[in-house]
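Quick entry, no commentary yet.
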Amino acid sequence: MLELRDLRKSYQGRAVLHGLTHRFGAGQFVAIMGESGVGKSTLLNIIAGLDSPDSGAVIIDGQSMAGLDDDAATALRRTRMGFVFQAFHVLPHLTLTQNVALPLLLNGGGAEAAAQASAMLAAVGLQGRGDDFPRQLSGGEMQRVAIARALVHRPALVLADEPTGNLDPETADAILALLRRQIKATGATAIMVTHSHAAAAQADQILVLSTLGLDLLS
């Protein structure tokens, strides 16, 4: 589903990614760990097409991201990807239903968008909260909204950057168990960047990013 081919990236003369090659299978939930500054978030941004490698290729469903113009890359992100951010990025002026429905509306969803958003809110444990606003939620509840929004359009690829960084351990465990269940239910491939071994333990596979590449944690 996702293949990285010899990715290289440098910033101001400092190499961050050194010829990274890896293949991620459909239905996998993979955690990526590594020291600060090693390039974990950079890798997610390159996979999403938000940043470009100096060389190498990101192949999604057989198509290179480098071969897409801006409009095509935006369309691919909108239809095939879901994002879960550490800072939530939930829009404060929209209700929870409206926040979760955004990917469906951007993809041309119509009358069913609100119903699908409500169903996804129920799936993440927020049934009946669709008319609430983000200011009425705890941090854990906001992350549930972020997960619901990331998955509502059934993306093939889910990217999560430190999704539990601001949460207490109990809430983090519940959020990740929820994310794992939803990923398995939709058959998505998921890549989660995390510094937390407890968070990584929820994944099917743990990879460590270093100057040598991506290696399976033994």
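second:
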Amino acid sequence: MIFEGVLKSGDALQEAALGEALGMSRTPVREAIKRIESEGLAVSEGRFIRVRRLPLSEVEEIFFLRLELEPFAARSAVRLPPAQIDAMEARVRALMTIDPGVDDMQWQTDKDFHNMLAQETGNRTLIDTIEALHRRTCVFDHSQVPDRFLRGANEHLVILDAIRTGDAHAVEQALIVHLENARDAVLERMRELPDLGEQELGRQ
């Protein structure tokens, strides 16, 4: 719901209301809220836990880390089986033909794409760290930076083509371009939002 924009920055995560909306008891909802908070997507404000709006400085830090870790990890993607590369390309191309706002297909495809690039390292800590960093910036999806949707998908295709060539350096450079473009689009969007500074939405 956060990734799809149903829950927006500053919205309170209320167990009863969410449980009713999801048809679940309060216990699993409470656990989910705790996990969301631990992942940096929500923050306690008095009696409430609210969807967090990342400050600009933190987004810069996250992308700094992603640019250090992901291109290095992606060099190993040249070992991916051709069938897996083809399957991911098919998903990306299918995504480009539909409305990305229909469901979470855009978020899921993007997550799986970046996870795939790191998986051949065999380094579980590195893979989990990359996934966690990616998750914290995915609130800036097609709904927040719509111009990045098709551009980002095309950049994914360029990366996949580089993987097919077996050129690890080309994969690394293509991913750097992709991440830098994503970073710049997100930061530009954040500067357009009201009351940014170092404040989080909902904190008055």
